[in-house]
Amino acid sequence: MDNYNQVFDNEVRVPRNVIKLNTGPSLVCSEVETARQFYEYNMGLEYGVEYQHFWPSGFGVGACMYLFNASFDKDLNMKIKYMGPLVAYSDYLDSKRRIRADIEFGLGCGILKEKGFQETNTETDFATMVGVGVECGVAKNVAFGLQLNWNSLFMFEPKGYYIKDEDMYGIERCSLLAGVRVYF
After folding, report:
1. Which residues partner with 69 through β-bridges?
2. What's the CA angle centered on 165, arms 37 and 170, to 5 degrees?
3. Do residues 179 and 145 make contact, with C-beta atoms less than 8 angstroms apart?
4. pTM of the entire predicted model
5. What is the CB-side half-sphere exposure of residue 33 using CA atoms within 13 A?
6. Contacts of 16 (CB under 8 A, 6+ apart)
7. Three-state secondary structure of the chain
8. Rounded to an integer, what distance in angstroms lies between the CA atom of residue 6 and that of residue 56?
9. Which of 59, 73, 80, 118 sits 20 to 30 Å CA-CA off 87?
């Protein structure tokens, strides 16, 4: 039996199941117009949870949900929820299997909720998420990690609104998140 476990451990590149809990600042990189002015960049707070299942090869699948909140002057409060499946690849960076890196790509649903001075608008559209992360194990089943995410929410153009061919109508964000990872 020990021989079987030894062979199996050598084949497993990463933990089979990972839960990530993340939080951190997120920068809106798209231009946002309020009643008072245009904003090219604005900071907000993002937090989320992910589940990933990996095969011995290091490739995996999972699902994630991220919530983002930002205020633009007194006129606009923006909340974006991203939910969707993801594909990922992960591997250890050291021989002691303490430092692990991963890259992930998700296609999902983005829900934008804007609350203005007198009205509330909710839109549901297609969204993408790309993330790269690194984490360091602090116990057998627990690690702390950093993750950089790029999120894009693609929205339909309203009537009478035209954009340049190379631009998109939507909201893009860049997030630097930190959190706990649990392996099981």
Report:
1. 45, 79
2. 45
3. yes
4. 0.84
5. 2
6. 53, 54, 183, 184
7. CHHHHHHHHHHCCCCCEEEEEEEEEEEECCCEECCCCEECCEEEEEEEEEEEEECCCCEEEEEEEEEEEEEECCCEEEEEEEEEEEEEEEEECCCCCCEEEEEEEEEEEEEEEEECCCCEEEEEEEEEEEEEEEEEEEECCEEEEEEEEEEEEECCCCCCCCCCCCCCCEEEEEEEEEEEEEEC
8. 14
9. 80
In sequence order, what are the beta bridge partners of 55?
none
Please list, in sequence order, all residues whose beta carbon lies within 8 angstroms of the beta carbon of residue 92, skipping any fewer than 6 positions away.
13, 14, 98, 99, 100, 101
As given in the structure block, the two tokens for residue 42 are: 């604005």
- Cα–Cα–Cα angle for 23, 24, 26, nearest 5°? 125
Place of tokens 């490739």: 59
Structure tokens, 139: 């116990």
Q: 119 with 101: CB under 8 angstroms?
A: no
CB 129 within 8 Å of CB 106: yes
Q: What is the rounded (10 degree) CA torsion for 145, 23, 108, 103?
A: -20
pLDDT of 1 strictly over 50: no
